[in-house]
Write a structure and sequence with these properties.
six-stranded mixed β-sheet
């Protein structure tokens, strides 16, 4: 059985500018995540594999999206956000504007952190496992909650996009992939390009 529908939900608004393991959602983030969950029938959640980043804000987003639905949620460390190192925010900002970042782009590794290319490779491993698990369990719906960078990598992998397109993708809303009835192409809604 192939994945028929995949839903990507970005971690909602947090108190921190960069998502960290203990970042928590703002009240607005809680409301937005709960509103996103209202778009789905509770039966859809019951028949879905649900994966989230193990960080606090992503788990809070997942719980808010699910609302009263009780479902087993898998917290997968492969879905953690891009590591930007242990630098203060102002130095992280500087690393995004550095000559190295402008020159290397997708392949630039933040000091003490990782590059988007490393996240992209990590997501490839996750998606291979996800396809295997959905086939094994006979599940054709998938919900993934993670940071926008991680979801951009999922999107690129699902669409077969080359790495030079990474900076064009911004995922700030729920993205849905629907496989056509002939199992050949995904129709996508909700991504900002």
């Amino acid at each position: 059985m192939a994945i028929r529908k995949m839903v990507l939900v970005p971690t909602a608004e947090t108190h921190d500018r960069y998502l960290r393991p203990h970042s928590e959602l703002t009240e607005r983030g809680q409301r937005l995540a709960a509103a996103a969950g209202l778009e789905f029938h509770p039966d859809w959640f019951a028949s879905a594999l649900i994966y989230t980043c193990p960080y606090v804000a992503s788990s809070q987003t997942t719980r808010a999206v699910l609302g009263p639905a009780r479902k087993l949620v898998f917290a997968d460390p492969l879905l953690r956000p891009q590591s930007l190192g242990d630098l203060p925010d102002h130095l992280i900002d500087q690393s995004f504007d550095s000559p190295g970042r402008r020159r290397l782009g997708f392949y630039y590794q933040h000091p003490g952190g990782e590059s988007e290319a490393q996240v992209y490779d990590r997501i490839a491993s996750f998606l291979n496992f996800l396809v295997w698990k959905s086939d094994r369990d006979g599940v054709n719906n998938v919900l993934i909650v993670a940071s926008p960078t991680v979801l951009a990598c999922v999107y690129m992998r699902m669409q077969g996009m080359p790495p030079d397109q990474f900076d064009r993708i911004t995922i700030r809303q729920v993205v849905q992939f629907h496989r056509n009835t002939d199992n050949t192409v995904f129709n996508v809604s909700g991504v900002t390009l």
